[in-house]
Amino acid sequence: MGYQPLEKLLPSSNFSIYKLIRMASQRATELADGLPKLIDISSSAKTATIALEEIMAGKVELLEVAEAAGKKIPPQEVVLTKKEEPQQSENDQAKEEPVSV
Length: 101
Prior knowledge:
This protein has about 100 residues and is an all-alpha fold. The chain contains five helices and no strands. Helix 2 (about 15-30) packs across helix 3 (about 45-55). It starts with 5 loop residues before the first helix and ends in a 5-residue tail after the last helix. The model is unreliable at about 75-85 (pLDDT under 50).
């Protein structure tokens, strides 16, 4: 188990422990979902440890901290999931379509 000193982690979260925890948990969730690691670390490390190491290395930080430091943030790809609309039955489709006689 790794130990990351709090003094090195807090600047990335604007000196808020709550924001640090939220940021680390969100990044750990992303790693668990299959996103690639931003640092070179052993594959046996747990996702929370990897997330904290990425924060300590400066690879992950709050947007407000990055903007305050004058860093340019590259545009992120936003993936939106489209809810599937329920399929209409043939009777419902027949009611909507005009019928020519």
